[in-house]
Amino acid sequence: MVKLTASVVDTYSGMVQQISSEYAKRYRMVNREDISQELWMWFMKHPNKLREWMEIEDKKESDKLIARSLRNCSEDFCQHEKAAIVGYEVDDVFYYTKEFVKTLLPAVLSEDVVRVQKALENNNGGRSQKNMAESGDWIAYAADIRKAYNSLDDKEKSLVYLFYAQDVDGATLHESAPERPTARAAMMAANRALNKIVRKLGGWKPFKEKDQEEKVEE
Q1: Within this chain, do residues 85 and 105 fall inside the same structural domain, yes or no?
Q2: Is the CB of residue 119 less than 8 Å from the CB of residue 131?
Q3: What is the pTM of this model?
Q4: Whether residue 74 sits in one domain with residue 22
Q5: Are residues 107 and 190 in the same domain?
Q6: pLDDT, tens digit, for every residue of 32-70?
Q7: Cβ atoms 213, 1 nearer than 8 A
């Protein structure tokens, strides 16, 4: 583990304070100072990645990459702290992946119970434990996805329904969304609406950055 330099602290203290405050509000059972300390630990554990990103000429892009990693670090830390405080295993937390939602959308929106169960049997959310369709949780998954879909505005619903549930091509999707300048723009709008569903379902699982610590020569 490496030491924090005064330059790094001066450069990123504002970012650390902002992100730690953001997650302290989201996870009120977790102390902001503890989150802040965890973020500074990220800098110490990832010297190579930090150096690589700090060398990017576009500072906005550099800050964007670092901030994303700090948010992932905060989410992971807060999830573990919440689990310890509330009393459950963090590995039991289920994340609705984008692929999982896409797989279930056609069945959920058709309101076909058998189809939903079949989709779960074929997918199982990437899990290795007992099939979700057999666990009785499939009703909750379908209800959650339907609720998130219903929270979209009418145009977003239409795009998601046609592109992901009806599996139309870009040209056909564009015909139903003439306000979009191109077929690609219509598909991108559908993708943003799908991302919105995932966020309403709790968002993406934190990604852990992998790096190697610098070796200190003896």
Answers
A1: no
A2: no
A3: 0.55
A4: yes
A5: yes
A6: 999 999 999 999 999 888 999 999 999 999 999 999 999
A7: yes
